[in-house]
Amino acid sequence: MKIIWLGHGSFRIETSDKVLLFDPWLTGNPVLPEDQHETAVAGGTHLVLTHAHFDHVADILPLARKLSVPVIGQYDLMGYWAEHEGIDTIGFNKGGTVDLGDDVSLSMVPASHSSTFSSEDGPKTAGSEVGFMLRAEGRTVYISGDTDIMADMDWMGDFYKPDIGILSAGGHFTMDMRGAAYAAKRYFNFKTVIPCHYKTFPILEQTADALVKGLPCVDVIEPQIMKAMEF
3-class SS at 61? Predict the structure, then answer.
């Protein structure tokens, strides 16, 4: 399995013959060089969306058409897009699991955030915010999506037992590094933690120092843009 950070909350995960693009934000992403956009999404087989904020959803529809691949996400928005945008979608909901073949599956889990987009009439709700548990190659990866610490992490850690955590930890919009360390230590038994949703803008945390300090017995990997982490 290869996990590749595209900056902010965006990831490319290569496993078996699948290339899963989680919240792939290209347009306007200040930390992903434009000359790497094509490489970042090349060969993508599925687009996976956690929620509808611009820094996660901006490129989803264009990429779905360009790559001719399905978008996986929360049922309400996927159903709307399938009907009105004419794209292939896989819509399901919290508690559900979709089998992508070759022993690769995604389970949808709760997150604590919001999921809206701007319109002429003000903000509109687009389904609900979620996270995912990815099972592949004998591993379980928790992709938190944008979230705060929440009590649901208790049963999620106990039930799914993820060994890798990809945690939004930049603060201001999500839990910060100290909060992510607290959540990881209290609710999970990760072997590896990868922070994200940080360093993109000055308002966000710029280092993972507090996360590293808070998890002395966990391998905290500070990801580098477009550099594969192999598991």
Answer: helix
- Its pTM surpasses 0.90: yes
Other Cβ atoms within 10 Å of 211 Cβ, number: 26
pLDDT in tens, 120-132: 888 778 889 999 9
Report the distance separating Cα 3 and Cα 19, nearest Å.
Answer: 10
**Do residues 161 and 189 make contact, with C-beta atoms less than 8 angstroms apart?**
yes
Sequence-distant (≥ 6) Cβ neighbours of residue 2 within 8 angstroms: 12, 13, 14, 15, 228, 229, 230, 231
Rounded-to-integer distance, Cα 154 and Cα 188, Å = 8
d(CA 177, CA 82): 37
Q: Which domains does the chain have, with CATH numbers?
A: 2-224 (3.60.15.10)
Tell me the C-alpha distance between 63 and 85, whole Å. 13
Residues 6 or more apart from 134 whose CB is under 8 A from it? Answer: 13, 15, 20, 104, 105, 106, 140, 141, 143
Integer-rounded Cα radius of gyration of the chain? 16
The residues near 119 (Cβ < 8 Å, ≥ 6 apart) are none
Q: Are strands 97-101 and 89-92 parallel, antiparallel or unpaired?
A: unpaired
